[in-house]
Write a structure and sequence with these properties.
It contains four helices and eleven strands; from the N terminus they run αββββββββββααβα. It has 204 residues and is of the alpha+beta class. The chain folds into two domains: 86 residues, CD59 (Ribbon), CATH 2.10.60; 97 residues, CD59.
Length: 204
């Protein structure tokens, strides 16, 4: 969490402040008050990652926010799924309450390819608002590792997509048709993706 200090310093360099927000970060949830840059917003986020039905990550945060961080979305690779629920507001200390826990959602009729090990011929039923198929290629240590699955539109477009791409040093492609993310045989790295999702949500 040490990364939040230089980021906040850069964001808050101007001397004119107009909005106070509660700040709560993992491991330091004291609900202290901070000043946000005009025209800033206050934000609350709840991020949960699952491996199967088991939670492997459960984080609540509060802080200043930008519009790109005010979203609800999920990214689903079959054996792991990350959900984000966020809410923003623009009055002093308006982010005092936690957002509701992200829900798993029901199958929505969309199907995408996914990977089990290096076999990417399997199919995955998308859940909730996962209305796109996704393919990502992460460059880690000079090795390209790819993943496939379902994602919400908010993951695939605009500032969030650009932030994820730069954070993961990745190529990320989304499409809307069933099984449109094809079925090449590729590898899988889940920890990198989950870590990157959390970093974007907390610090972007």
């Amino acid at each position: 969490m040490h990364l939040i200090v230089p980021i906040l310093v850069c964001v808050l360099l101007p001397k004119a402040y107009s909005l106070k927000c509660f700040e709560c970060t993992p491991g330091a949830c004291t609900n202290k008050q901070i000043d946000c840059l005009n025209p800033g917003q206050c934000g609350n986020s709840w991020i949960i990652s699952y491996a199967g039905d088991r939670k492997i990550l459960d984080i609540n945060t509060k802080s200043c926010a930008v519009s790109a961080g005010c979203l609800s979305s999920s990214m689903n690779f079959g054996i792991t799924r990350t959900t984000i629920a966020s809410k923003c507001c623009n009055t002093d200390l308006c982010n005092s309450q936690n957002v509701p826990e992200p829900t798993k959602g029901l199958p929505n009729g969309k199907t995408c390819f996914t990977c089990i090990g290096t076999d990417c011929m399997s199919t995955l039923s998308c859940l909730g608002d996962e209305d796109h198929c996704i393919s990502t290629t992460v460059n880690t240590g000079g090795e390209k590792i790819s993943m496939k699955g379902c994602a919400s539109k908010t993951i695939c477009t605009g500032d969030v997509s650009r932030a994820l791409g730069s954070t993961m040093s990745t190529e990320m492609n989304c499409c809307e048709g069933n099984l449109c993310n094809n079925a090449q045989s590729i590898g899988l790295s889940l920890l990198i993706l989950v870590t990157s999702m959390v970093s974007v949500t907390l610090f972007y």
